[in-house]
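@channel sequence for tomorrow's demo:
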Amino acid sequence: MPLAHSLPTEFNRGVVTMVHQGDCHVSADPDLTYSTVLGSCISACVYDRVAGVGGMNHFLLAEQSGSALGKYGASARYGAFAMEQLLNMVLSRGTRSKTNLEIKVFGGGLVTSMLQDIGAKNIAFVRDFLANEGYALAGEDVGGTYARRVLFKPGSGRAFVRRLGNTEGASVANEEIALVSRRTTVAPVDDIELF
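structure tokens (generated this afternoon):
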């Protein structure tokens, strides 16, 4: 997916809602923009082309492991739940037809070597999940060694990605290290817009 060099004007108006780790939001509001910051996390943006409704999720880990399996239950922190939740919400608010969905995936960067490339596991998970469920990817910006800010217009399906510099990336990496190490309730990433 090609990256724009400057922010398209449609992203400069309306309401911006932050999508934090563990969130899943769906809307048809043409003036709404979802925004998130990703390191090794993944965000999927799903848009029903016919109904004009879309949504964004944000998850840190592909699946629960070890002691977390029985401890946390079905949490949007984990990929399978986050993807099922987003797809079901868009389908139920849209045309209910999988063929009308446009899916874009972002994130999965290796922003710190301390996370044992969770990003690569997340990328593999989301690609496998979508393929196994019969969905095709319309676009992706995944991998690399940087953090990203993603903006998504749920009413039009348009997405904008900005790759972040080392300072912002280090902040995202520190947040993710803390989350992975404590595996408890997630605190949101700072709401600073970098545009």
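heads up for whoever presents: Strands lie at 15-18, 24-27, 32-38, 42-48, 53-57, 101-107, 137-142, 148-152, 159-163.
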